[in-house]
Design brief:
Elements: H1 17-24, H2 26-43, H3 60-65, H4 71-94, H5 99-121, H6 131-168, H7 170-186, H8 196-205, H9 212-215, H10 221-224, H11 231-266, H12 271-292, H13 304-320, H14 333-352, H15 361-369, H16 384-409, H17 413-437, H18 449-476, H19 483-489
Length: 513
């Protein structure tokens, strides 16, 4: 007898109040994150200067009402605000609003955010503002809300199916979650390009050799964003490229290990068959990511990603087929600590590259005067895609560190909160030390943004790992309290592997219905 209701937004899934609050407000937090991302995409880069050769611009209100109509911009604005409207609708429905109220909330959110972005763009000489953009953005939010309402029953059905899979096939559910995370991480910054001519030119210039990007880093404007690179910048770009491919292989190894374990547990395949299945699934996933990257100007075709998938798939398949294992997803603590040390080493290597010291007094003094003490100040002058790619590349390693620390500690209550806060402070101090070392490294600059990202990344990773662990435990617990059902379950025909009887003292236990 399952005790969990269809909607668990208000239920306690953890003994930690912070995790319960995050779980109860997940839809609202997703809406806030989508809003901030949308504002950043709309207003970056913030450049209020006007070139001397540029013609005088008409007043903002004239440009707002008489901007030229572009069919492509209308479609792009509708597609951009569609997810925002869907999240606004789902968040309002989850907090108790009616369907009409959720639709009005989505339309109002789309209209207000669009007016704000257009107001900022009216002060930027390089950007255009138009009433057509406001109308198309609002229409996109409304269509997104309607789509969210239509898809809401499907989403709830998929959620219930995932809960059942967590109880019966935990390794399969974990592999699916990891696959979704890989796609989300690997396709950033999501700058899709649908122009067939540009895509054709990119394919003609691409190479199927996995070493093509490595050899062409010195001339690759797409990766370096500069027409000419110095020797120090080439070394740094190659360090970054090598570490990124190693991280890709590690992610695919995790996916392959979970897939192999799932196949062995659910279908009873042998080790060789499970390994072949896991490697094939990993190749398909990495190939899908490589193909989708063709439509991203900041990425392009890079077959080295498929090679990383193959290497990671082989390693993960070997690990997953080593022994059958049980239903528990708990990993050895020593393995988690070793992975955390490897990530720390990668962060240090990336932070100190190109490892070419420059201890000249005037160079150090000039860098000390140019230290960026305002977080994200350098990102405000960059394109949104470049800013998102750069910030996410700095944030994700610390998110992984926080997740590994939370999983390795397995603490509860105030001890968990205090240890994670100290660990986040320690990682921020490591990031500050690396930034201070940039004073003595050629082609590097000091910036306080990585320190801020390190502290926040560890907290995000720790909270995310704790939420996953507690929600996983919450979905797998079944509580039986009445005597009649207990006697029936103790009969010879009952399969005890199909249910988990939790003690009444369990903090995750909920009264049976």
């Amino acid at each position: 007898m399952d005790v969990h209701a269809d909607g668990d937004a208000g239920r306690r899934i953890s003994s930690e109040p912070i995790i319960n609050w995050l779980h109860a407000h997940a839809a609202e937090l997703a809406f806030v994150a989508a809003t901030l991302t949308l504002i950043g995409v709309s207003v970056l880069p913030l450049d209020f200067s006007r070139p001397a050769s540029a013609p005088l611009l008409a007043p903002a209100w004239v440009r707002f009402w008489h901007a030229p109509l572009s069919k492509g911009d209308v479609i792009a604005n509708i597609a951009l605000y569609g997810p925002l409207g869907a999240l606004a609708y789902l968040a309002s429905r989850r907090t108790g609003w009616s369907a009409a109220g959720g639709l009005a909330m989505a339309i109002g959110a789309g209209l207000s955010i669009s007016l704000f972005c257009e107001g900022v763009q009216s002060m930027l000489p390089a950007r255009t503002t138009s009433v057509v953009d406001v109308a198309s953005n609002t229409l996109g939010a409304m269509l997104g809300a309607i789509g969210g309402g239509l898809l809401r029953p499907i989403v709830r059905a998929r959620r219930d199916q995932m809960r059942w899979e967590i109880r019966s096939q935990p390794w399969s559910a974990a592999a699916k979650v990891v696959a979704c995370l890989i796609i989300v991480i690997q396709l950033r910054p999501y700058d899709l390009l649908m122009d067939a001519r540009d895509i054709g030119r990119g394919l003609r210039a691409a190479s199927l050799s996995p070493l093509h990007e490595w050899k062409s880093l010195a001339q690759a404007k797409r990766l370096a964003r500069r027409p000419q690179l110095s020797d120090a910048e080439i070394v740094r770009a190659r360090w970054d490229y090598s570490l990124e491919r190693s991280a890709d292989a590690a992610m695919y190894a995790i996916f392959a290990a979970m897939t192999a374990r799932a196949i062995r547990r659910t279908r009873g395949f042998g080790r060789l068959d499970s390994a072949i299945y896991a490697i094939s699934a990993t190749l398909i996933l990495s190939g899908l990511v490589a193909v989708l990257r063709i439509f991203e100007p900041s990425r392009g075709l890079d077959t080295a990603h498929i090679a990383s998938g193959l290497a990671g798939g082989a390693i993960g398949a070997a690990i997953g087929c080593w022994k059958p294992g049980g239903d528990s997803l708990r990993l050895p603590r020593g393995l988690l600590i070793a992975a955390a040390y490897l990530i720390c080493a990668a962060i240090v290597l990336r932070g100190l590259a190109p490892l070419q010291p420059d201890i000249r007094g005037h160079a150090v003094r000039s860098k000390a005067h140019a230290v960026r003490l305002i977080p994200f100040a350098s990102s405000l002058a960059s394109r949104p895609n470049d800013s998102l790619l750069d910030l996410s590349s700095k944030l994700l390693p610390y998110v992984a560190l926080g997740g590994l620390a939370s999983a390795a500690l397995r603490l509860r209550g105030h001890t968990w909160r205090g240890w994670i806060a100290r660990y986040a402070t320690l990682c921020a101090a490591m990031a500050a030390t690396l930034e201070a070392a940039h004073l003595f490294i050629a082609a590097r600059h000091c910036d306080v943004t990585p320190v801020f990202l390190a502290f926040c990344g560890v907290l995000i990773g720790a909270a995310g790992a704790r939420w996953v662990a507690d929600y996983w435990r919450f979905c797998r617990i079944r509580v039986v309290e009445d005597r009649l059902t207990s006697e029936l379950m103790s009969g010879p025909g009952f399969d005890k592997r199909a249910a988990i009887v939790a003690p009444r003292s369990s903090p995750q236990a909920a009264p049976a219905r």
